[in-house]
């Protein structure tokens, strides 16, 4: 076994609560719009995105357990300065994008629960206060914060489970959708939806977060058996967490697919007028077009068809989801900044940094546009998470495949090839397919340059990953470390 340094003792109160790993992030539910295929046809995407997420999470955890360092720290040691800074920027963009989604989801929940009395821009501003509240709980005591997050996860499971029972989707169709991959007549829109599902399930910054969380456990890394045991227990914990997340997402997608698929605006409008939430009827025009459903309109339609209780329970579930993941981005951002830049900020400073970038564009859209634009921005952010995924997956594959670093725990080449090929193929296909849809030279030139830079950087990461897998002929100069690893000094550190 490699003699990696043991983790230093960390005060218990400073550790992030394990509940941060549980449940989906807010406003990132992989909900199908009514104009796309019914949800059961895309449930298999949800299942395999969850499996892929488990594989990525397992690799991140294994890296932290075996080396005693997180993914950001390893990137700092191995990548040259320019690629390292670019990689940090990509992950920061993912964190800010995720935080924007949390803000959007929480603002929509406040609007639903207040019957529209709290405007969307007001809900966005309230998220500043709730973030500071969680920082206070974190300082007050880990047990209190952990218990509160456990309560929120329970609320999510119960509320979305309630909606699932009320709507009663066909169980046979749900099972077919999960285990039989098919999507007849699917095209570009369905690909965008599938990418949104992947982006909603696998968050790039969470891969960095998981590699950091395991550092807090004291493990005797000189004993292979101790490392194997730690990896096994962490894997069990990850399986339980992602199973809960899968169930919650399944509830949401099945509810949307059963209740809202091919509903027409005039039918929903008529139903809302005669319901206990008739004040929401005006958001649906009286035409025969298929209604376009998002997490806001979804809650309203639930209220129109199944009563006000269903609407408020939906709002509570969205609010709980938003609050349960508010701190995830804060912890991930803190670890990423410390790893890549060796720069230590307090959590208070870190959350102000992230949320200041997230609040401004979100509050502007909420104030000067309507909820359709806000939820549309959320859908684009989901796709952004999927596009940024290679910048987390490729580094973790690179370093968990580097034998001098991982020794007996290094990856097999087949695993690397499958995951790399799948993630990169989906994203590159989307990039190539998206460009022709833009009309006008003023769009093609800047976006073409941006996409070329994206493909070039992904190619660079694949190159270093290939070196780590034994392609020595690709190694040149500085990048030889991706083949031979870094030497340890006499004290056992890099």
Report the uncertain regions.
2-19, 32-37, 488-492
Q: Roughly how much helix do the residues carry, as a percent range?
A: over 70%
- CATH homologous superfamily? Amino acid/polyamine transporter I
Mean pLDDT score, rounded? 78
CATH fold-level topology: Amino acid/polyamine transporter I
CATH class label: Mainly Alpha
Overall 3D geometry? globular
Indicate the structural class: mainly alpha
Order of helices and strands: HHHHHHHHHHHHHHHHHHHH
Q: How large is the share of residues in beta strands?
A: under 5%
Q: Architecture, according to CATH?
A: Up-down Bundle
Q: Find the count of extended strands (DSSP E, 2+ residues).
A: 0
* Secondary structure tally, helices: 20
Structural domain tally = 1
Oligomeric form of this entry? single chain
Radius of gyration: 23 Å
Major sheet: none
- CA-CA gap between termini: 15 Å
Describe the structure.
By secondary structure, the protein is mainly α. The chain contains 20 helices and no strands. The longest helix is centred in the middle third of the chain and has 37 residues, at 224-260. It is globular.
């Amino acid at each position: 076994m490699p003699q990696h340094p043991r983790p230093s003792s960390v005060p218990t109160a400073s550790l992030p609560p394990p509940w941060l790993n549980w449940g989906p992030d807010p406003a990132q539910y992989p909900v199908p719009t009514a104009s796309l295929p019914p949800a059961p046809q895309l449930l298999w995407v949800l299942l395999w995105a969850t499996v892929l997420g488990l594989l990525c999470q397992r690799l991140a955890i294994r890296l932290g357990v075996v080396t005693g360092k997180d993914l950001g720290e390893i990137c700092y040691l191995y990548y040259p300065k320019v690629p390292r800074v670019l990689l940090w920027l990509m992950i920061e963009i993912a964190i800010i994008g995720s935080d924007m989604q949390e803000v959007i989801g929480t603002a929509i929940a406040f609007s639903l629960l207040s019957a529209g009395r709290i405007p969307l821009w007001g809900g966005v501003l309230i998220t500043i206060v709730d973030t500071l509240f969680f920082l206070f709980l974190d300082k007050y005591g880990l047990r209190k914060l952990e218990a509160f997050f456990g309560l929120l996860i329970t609320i999510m499971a119960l509320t979305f489970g309630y909606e699932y029972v009320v709507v009663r989707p066909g169980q046979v169709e749900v099972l077919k959708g999960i285990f039989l991959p098919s999507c007849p007549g699917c095209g570009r829109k369905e690909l965008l939806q599938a990418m949104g599902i992947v982006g909603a399930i696998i968050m790039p910054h969470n891969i960095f977060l998981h590699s950091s969380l395991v550092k807090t456990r004291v493990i005797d890394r000189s004993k292979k058996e101790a490392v194997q045991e730690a990896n096994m227990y962490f894997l069990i914990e990850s399986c339980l967490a992602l199973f809960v997340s899968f169930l919650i997402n399944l509830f949401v997608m099945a509810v949307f697919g059963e209740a809202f698929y091919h509903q027409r605006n005039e039918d929903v409008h008529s139903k809302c007028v005669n319901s206990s939430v008739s004040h929401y009827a005006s958001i649906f025009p009286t035409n025969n077009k298929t209604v376009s459903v998002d997490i806001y309109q979804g809650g309203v339609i639930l209220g129109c068809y199944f009563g006000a209780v269903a609407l408020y329970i939906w709002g509570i579930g969205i609010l709980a989801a938003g609050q349960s993941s508010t701190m995830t981005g804060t912890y991930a951002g803190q670890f990423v900044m410390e790893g890549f830049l060796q720069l230590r900020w307090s959590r208070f400073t870190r959350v102000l940094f992230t949320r200041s970038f997230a609040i401004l564009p979100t509050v502007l859209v909420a104030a000067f546009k309507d909820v359709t634009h806000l939820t549309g921005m959320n859908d684009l952010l989901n796709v952004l998470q999927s596009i940024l995924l290679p910048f987390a997956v490729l580094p973790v594959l690179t370093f968990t495949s580097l034998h001098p670093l991982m020794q007996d725990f290094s990856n097999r080449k087949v695993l690397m090839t499958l995951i790399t090929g799948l993630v990169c193929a989906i994203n590159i296909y989307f990039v190539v397919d998206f460009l022709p849809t833009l009309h006008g030279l003023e769009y093609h030139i800047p976006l073409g340059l941006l996409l070329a830079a994206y493909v070039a950087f992904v190619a660079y990461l694949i190159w270093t990953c290939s070196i780590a897998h034994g392609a020595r002929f690709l190694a040149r100069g500085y990048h030889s470390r991706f083949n031979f690893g870094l030497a340890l000094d006499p004290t056992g550190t890099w």
